[in-house]
Amino acid sequence: MLTLGLHSLGHDTGVCLWDEGELVFTMETERLTRVRYETRVDAALKAVRAHPSFDPNRIGRIASSSHFRRNILDVPQPDLAERALISERKLHYNTVSSMFGRDIPCTIVSHEVSHAVLGLHEAGWRDRTLILVNEGRGVFSRNALYFYADGRLQLVDWNLMPWFGTGFGWSSVGYLVGLGRHPGVAGKAMALGGFQGPGARESAALRDVDPCIADLSEPDQTQQADRLLGELGGSLDFDGKCRLVASLQDLFVSAIIGRVTEAVGEHNAQAVALSGGCALNIVANSALRNALSVPLFVPSACNDAGQALGAALYAQMFVDGVQPGAFALCALGDPVTPETAARFLAQRGMSSVDASPQRVGRMLAEGKVIAVAQGQSEIGPRALGNRSILADPNVPGVKERVSERLKGRESFRPLAPIMREETFARILPGRPESPAMLFNFDVTGLGFGAAAHVDNTARIQTVSQSQNPFVHAVLGEFEPLSGSPALINTSLNSGGRPICLTESDVFDDFPSGTVDAYVLADRLVVAS
Asked: What gap in Å lies between CA 528 and CA 516, rounded to an integer?
């Protein structure tokens, strides 16, 4: 039986396809349309229908996040589903869908639950796992706490965090410091906190904001937040913006640690998982992991890009009784293979040589900037080596070239490093590994160069030989030649666009001459 997962409404839409508990295809729509935070799902649905494993007659269940387009899902009495999931806070609602011209069992899963189950899956379905879903806005909450024990998932609390402990707090402050209104504001704002420490005046003002702005029923909550925060901010200079963000970060971390550690004790939890957009806050993730006496898990697609996956995981486990299997960090879309790369290069009339790790590692040690597209793409928003720009972090001017000129990013935003697990264990002994780039580390004096933030921390990705044999081998060549323990690893996309998926995307975003070379599967193209 096939299970089709669907997230068709809101930003970061996408689909996934499972066959008896095995993930066979997943796609975030923005990778196809090249529209960041894509709200339509049509292109992803077309892609899944073209996949060899897709057979409409074998689809035994459609699993949809509770944010869905009614004209696509086509379920009877959709208002009943909304009432059950929003007003009654049910975990799911079973119905039927006529999506493919026949009635197919359909499970609509609460937005919050889709996040929670993805976190639970990352934790390996451990008994007595506590899951905090924290974001800007779900269907009935800004944050919700779930507990999984004895095979049962239950909601134990909601709207448990103060307003400054939510994604809404981050988006409000991000707007106040001039970063606009869009789903990526929070991530940009977080970078400012590294330039200053928290301020007593800023912290007090943030604490005193009327808590009713976190109430989902408040119709003018954003305007109210603007007004109240504006009383503090007015016109802020750069240092003032940084102090405000650092103050929010400090309050956010304290709120997360306080409530989660309290809940761990209340429920005798044996593991904790984080999900929702706030789980991309690496400072909070790292502080919480250090504060806990139990393991912490964060899925790579903890933002809304994981909604389709979470809905499908829930339906398989809790409705159909099928234990879903693990899936790789890089499992999105169709792969860039030696065959597709060779065909693309022939069509473009481009010459290439073998992309051996020795050759690529040597070029990186010589200061070259290289775009890499190999295999399937990363699930979620982090570049993990399959759609990455790689560079030596100790080359003068590399941050300005890669981050600001190539990618058009703000100057205050940091770049991140990638390093081999064994190198990480040697220079940061005893620290937990970070394969999905979701934790930060103090790298003072360790030679990370432009891959470290202004506060001497870095969002490290650790890579093993089994996870990514090519990048692992490249690092093995690069390290002794350069003396650097890590490479810069930033996502393969130009300013304002999603991560590249295909070979064509790479050259659309980075025409010849913008980077020094391209790795397409097993081929290396040196820019002219």
From this structure: 8
How many residues in total does the chain contain? 528
pLDDT at 229: 62
- Say what angle helices 185-192 and 238-267 make with each other, to 10 degrees: 110
Q: Which tens digits make up the pLDDT trace of 287-330?
A: 999 999 999 999 999 999 999 999 999 999 999 999 999 999 99
Full set of structural domains in the chain with CATH: 2-113+305-327 (3.30.420.40), 124-294 (3.30.420.40), 332-526 (3.90.870.20)
> Does residue 214 surpass a pLDDT of 80?
no
pLDDT for 498 beyond 70: yes
**Average pLDDT score over the chain:** 94
Strand partners, 489: 390
CA distances from residue 489 to 253, 386, 391, 402, 450 in whole angstroms, order as listed: 26, 10, 7, 10, 11
Cβ contacts of residue 239 below 8 Å, gap of 6+? Answer: 195, 196
Say whether pTM exceeds 0.90: yes
Angstrom distances, CA of residue 290 to CA of 5, 284, 425, 463, 514 = 34, 10, 17, 21, 41
Which residues are registered as beta bridge partners of 94? 107
Q: Quickly state the pLDDT bin for 168 (edges 50, 70, 90).
A: confident
CB 412 within 8 A of CB 195: yes
3-state SS assignment for residue 71: helix
Nearest to 192 by CA among 276, 283, 108: 283
Could you give the C-alpha distances from 423 to 181, 361, 467, 479, in angstroms and in order?
A: 40, 16, 15, 9
Judged against a pLDDT cut of 90, whether residue 489 lies above it is answered with: yes
Q: What span, in angstroms and rounded, lies between the C-alpha atoms of 399 and 392? A: 10
Which DSSP letter does residue 76 get?
S
> Which string of DSSP letters, residue by residue, matches 387-412?
EEEEE-TTSTTHHIIIIIIIS---TT
Task: Give the sign of the dihedral formed by CA 374, CA 376, CA 381, CA 382.
Answer: negative
Beta bridge partners of 336: 375
> Is the CB of residue 441 less than 8 Å from the CB of residue 461?
no
Burial classification of residue 96, based on how many CB atoms lie within 10 Å of its CB (0-12 exposed, 13-18 middle, 19 or more buried): middle
Residue listed under structure tokens 């070029």: 363
pLDDT digits (tens, 9 = 90+) for 230-263: 666 556 889 999 999 999 999 999 999 999 999 9
Which single residue is written with the structure tokens 């089994």? 466
